[in-house]
Amino acid sequence: MTGPRLVGRRQSEEASAAVSDGRVVAVPGEEGYYVAMALSARDALSTLRGLAPHPAGPAAPQVWVGGRSQAVDLASVWSKETAFLTDRMWPGPLTVIVPAYLDMVASDEPVVHLTMPAARGLRALCRTAGPLAVGALLRPDGAAVVDPSAIGARFSEDDLALIVDGGVCRGLPPTVVDCTVTPPRVRRVGALPESYVDAALMMGARRRRWFKRAGPGASR
Questions:
Q1: How far is CA 194 from CA 63, 91, 93, in A?
Q2: pLDDT per residue as tens, the chain (220 positions)
Q3: Does the residue 215 lie in any domain?
């Protein structure tokens, strides 16, 4: 059995070609490695769930985007609060949970988790190949896989086209904010402190009130 190739970050065109061809690649995230596949590829979500199953069972889709327009296109509702948060904190370690526009998951709660990665190369990959469905690679003990050398033995080349070597990735995961509720609620605190989320929402609300007061017909 032939394992997936390991390529450097500078060989990103190979990863782009593989993803554009409907293949799965492993890429470095802030806190560990992920398997990634073009969201538009056939059976993308079920394929990733087979390669990187979630410990608690099937979960809502995780999707990386390369620009705001890609994110908005995947959401049935893009609220003012979602805009406040992403305007200030994307690209970066923020994941927003929004109602899914596409029927991406057969669930009583059709939502999608959206992230715009901080790494420029990952955003470029998303812009080239489209939004990426991703799944975190975990060790048997549930910890993140942080070393690319630990990935190759787990997959064949049929499963995984290649591994983008980002070195050892050991950091905090993105902070997850649920924007399907009002006000938005922090579901997991990661690299972004909860106080930053609160401040962004507060500043956004103040700005919206100011524009309402200063709009057409306002007294001068």
A1: 22, 17, 12
A2: 577 999 987 777 899 999 999 999 999 999 999 999 999 999 999 999 999 998 776 678 899 999 999 999 999 999 999 999 999 999 999 999 999 986 655 455 589 999 999 999 999 999 999 999 999 999 999 999 999 999 998 999 999 999 999 999 999 999 999 999 999 999 999 999 999 999 999 987 776 554 455 555 554 4
A3: no
DSSP state of 153: G
| H-run or E-run covering 16 | helix 12-20
Residue 172, domain member (yes or no)? yes
Q: Confirm if 9 and 164 have CB atoms less than 8 A apart.
A: yes
- What does the DSSP assignment read for 71-114? HHHTBS---HHHHHHHHHH-SSSEEEEEEBSS--S-SSS-EEEE
Instruction: Quote the number of domains for the chain.
Output: 1
CATH number at residue 42: 3.90.870.10
pTM, full prediction: 0.89
Question: What is the dihedral sign for C-alpha 4, 137, 121, 44?
Answer: positive
Give me the domain span that covers residue 41: 5-210
Task: Confirm whether 65 is domain-assigned.
Answer: yes
